[in-house]
Design brief:
The protein is about 35% helix and about 15% strand. The protein has six helices and eight strands; from the N terminus they run E-E-H-E-H-H-E-E-H-H-H-E-E-E. Strands 1-5-4-2-3 form a five-stranded mixed sheet.
Length: about 170
């Protein structure tokens, strides 16, 4: 998936990317591990980490589909670009000194297939790890349903943050 704009693009050809925000599932052990690993890497473009679905994420990015950010890694550029899934991983690798060359290779058609396959494998691992039969802990879906082996299924409906101005949109545009 190519980047889409959640806000008016500042002309990416002239304006450099100064920072990337990585929205990650803080309840996922794999996501938390990768966040820590990314934070230890030498960064050419600073990475900021914000838990997906958090109050901070809603405050900074009110137009994003926050349910989707809990299902798939989402990266937001400082000019409003939004990347999800394999494209998000390529952008994050591009921000790292030791992995920029790999990001360029993964941005080719053949590399994109490899990046997508790695993203799908991670998603399968997350799903298997979170289910009771694989010994995982609680499983949280982006639609409000959660399963905890101790308490069973629970539903907490999604409630978007209040928007006093009336200009909020539930989904990113672009």
């Amino acid at each position: 998936m190519a980047g889409t704009s959640a806000a008016r693009d500042r002309d990416a050809a002239r304006v450099p990317v100064l920072r990337l925000t990585v929205l990650y599932d803080a309840r996922c052990p794999l996501c938390a591990f990768l966040k820590e690993w990314l934070g230890r890497q030498a960064q050419l473009v600073p990475l900021r980490f914000v838990p997906a679905g958090s109050e901070e994420a809603h405050r900074h990015y009110p137009r994003l589909d926050h349910r989707a950010t809990l299902e798939e890694i989402t990266v937001v550029g400082d000019a409003g670009q939004v990347y999800q899934g394999a494209a998000a991983w390529v952008v994050v690798l591009w921000a790292l000194r030791e992995y920029r060359a790999l990001a360029h290779r993964l941005s080719t058609p053949a590399g994109a297939r490899l990046a997508r396959g790695a993203t799908l494998a991670a998603a399968r691992w997350r799903e298997a790890r979170s289910s009771k039969r694989w010994g995982g802990g609680a499983y949280h879906r982006g639609d409000g349903w959660s399963y905890d082996p101790a308490t069973g299924w629970t539903y907490v409906p999604y409630a978007p943050p209040a928007c006093d101005s009336g200009a909020c949109s539930p989904r990113a545009t672009g």
